Amino acid sequence: MTYPIHTVDTTNGISDQQLTVLLDEFIKQKAANAKRILILPPDITRFYSKAGFISAYLYEKLKDQAEIYFLPALGTHDPMSDAEIDVMFGKKIPKSLFIPHKWRTDVKKLGEVSSARINELSEGKLDYSMDVAVNKLVDEGNWDLIVSVGQIVPHEVIGMANYTKNILVGTGGSDTIHKSHFLGAVYGMERIMGRTSTPVRKALNEGYDQYLSHLPIEFILTVLGKKENKLALQGVFCGAEEETYVEACKLSQKLNLSLLAKPIKKAIVYLEPSEFKTTWLGNKAIYRTRMAMADAGELIILAPALHRFGEDMEIDALIRQYGYRTTDETLQAVKADKQLANNLSAAAHLIHGTSDNRFNITYCPGDGVSRAEIESVNYQYCHYDDMVKKYPIETLQNGWNTMPDGEEIFYVSNPALGLWSTESGFNGTN
């Protein structure tokens, strides 16, 4: 088998046994002599990516020949709990091998993207430089091999998730995270989501190519899509160059982008309790469906495990202070508030979480967040238990459903797994 490894099977899917054959070939070509290995998997929010299976398999096959550590690409997310590690990677890997990434402190700057380049990429709207930085362990660990594992799927900040983002945002620092997110928000998420090449992608790729090319980084990228209403692995892409990312994106656009013939008047989106506990993550329900929502439509978000807004407590406080107002109001707040200006990823998140009053958003948490809290950030409220009586999720299929009273709704069982738009909406923003 030649390298890079690009394997696609959209007819039958790729079984776990077939995946291990591909991983054995990856080990043969890239890890046969490695003595120190760092694995960069996603956290529990990408549970369905197969990254846990892949990381655990690499550990099992290589643990007798190499020192292996795991640095989950957390970005601003909470460190993984022992229970989450067990669910994601199994119970055979010692917890001491998992190192939490601390995005505010454990970072080393390697270079920067110039202000002139950011100005060009933002079409003249921004004039700051942006750090190119990673967790110190990535650069100073004297690794023989660094394996970045993750899923290619549409993303609101960069267009398509993973590849260099897993390194420079997932193990990156506050400057890169804040400014990359704000660049995406100012450029416009509807011009970005589902696209392979975007201003944020260009900035990260250029920084990665200029300052991280000395590191022995290999990527294992997965692409999953529904088969017979179940999620199935359909693509595995192993390589170190951009062509591996581009090929994975082509498959993800085919499998994860749903272009609808008509806009959605009412959408019901379910947030899996193990995956979505904050609006920071749960607002995927908003931006992954916004290009499909009809004007004056209604988006209902079923969020049984919601317990706060931000993953990071400083950002949580800013969300509570400003709420999800319109884009123009948030941009004005950035100019007026130094604290918000110093937390541009929070400002970007506020922009991502607004409908700009174009459609209505009702959040339906369990008991973890109160009506007053939800309404204070400018969302409508209904308790989860009350809403699921009207829309019992066990009776719904992904896509269009007709309820017993004749109401037509559109159901999404996991917004992290796709992007929904009207065909005219997606193509009209090219």
Automatic annotation (TrEMBL):
InterPro entries: LarA-like, LarA-like_C, LarA-like_N. Residues 28-183 form the LarA-like N-terminal domain. Keywords: Plasmid. It comes from the Bacteria. This is Lactate racemase domain-containing protein. It comes from Catenovulum adriaticum.
